[in-house]
Write a structure and sequence with these properties.
There is one protein chain. With 225 residues, the protein is mainly α. The protein has a single domain, classed as Up-down Bundle (Methane Monooxygenase Hydroxylase, Chain G, domain 1), CATH 1.20.58.220. The protein is 85% helix and 0% strand.
Length: 225
């Protein structure tokens, strides 16, 4: 690999991993804010979303500069295209974490909801999917990336259970419907975080193998260890 390519790729990798680290921390802090009813921490997460937006623009501009100046082909082109797509998904995850923080801020002022104790499992699985998708990029590991894709079904199952429970809760306590709708919103945002992590993992598979695996959910589920 020419020296200039090695330098550009390493720089892009550092940028996208920096964004990923911030986003992963945002998810964790948003869930801490929810669990601990910590309004200040929720506000911190909401405010930091602007930092994510700025870094996303930096990464996009760097990718476009490389495409314009070097006109990459083959693996180098796949790398830049994959980073462009991952960049968008990571920014989206940042938005979703901020959404959770907004709901956490609202719920911190309301009477405690017992149903919130069931969120940690889904949150931990979604956060692990984000971490593993980034690890698969660092290690160029398509096998790990495919495991991330397969794990999406687990988060989907948990969020579907939460939907049923929130509907039941609203029927029992209609006066608290707005609170339970916030709970449902958190669940939906976790589901979308997992979806975005899956998109990143699919991009890693494309980067490593040139294979496009979108819409192959059943096949990936069969590969799940």
């Amino acid at each position: 690999m020419p020296y200039y390519w090695q330098k550009e790729i390493e720089n892009l990798k550092k940028l996208i991993l920096s964004l990923g680290a911030i986003v992963e921390e945002q998810i964790q802090k948003a869930m801490f804010a929810l669990e601990r009813r910590d309004e200040n921490l929720a506000v911190e997460v909401i405010n930091r979303d602007e930092e994510i937006d700025k870094l996303e623009i930096v990464i996009e501009e760097e990718c476009l500069k490389i495409l314009a100046l070097y006109q990459p082909v083959a693996i180098e082109l796949r790398f830049v295209v994959a980073v462009l797509k991952m960049n968008n998904d990571l920014e989206r995850i940042g938005d979703l974490a901020a959404n959770i923080a907004e709901r956490a801020q609202y719920l911190s002022k309301r009477e405690r909801i017992a149903l919130l104790s069931e969120f940690p499992e889904a949150a931990q699985k979604a956060q692990l999917m984000v971490r593993n998708s980034l690890d698969s990029l660092v290690n160029t590991d398509p096998k790990l990336a495919k495991q991330v894709c397969a794990a999406d079904d687990e988060v989907d199952a948990l969020t579907k259970q939460m939907l049923k429970k929130t509907i039941t809760a609203i029927e029992k306590e209609p006066s608290r419907a707005s609170d339970y709708i916030s709970v449902r919103s958190i669940s939906k945002n976790l589901e979308r975080i997992a979806d975005s992590a899956t998109n990143i993992a699919e991009d890693v598979v494309y980067l490593c193998t040139g294979e496009i695996i979108r819409h192959k959910g059943e096949e990936l589920s069969e590969e799940k260890p």
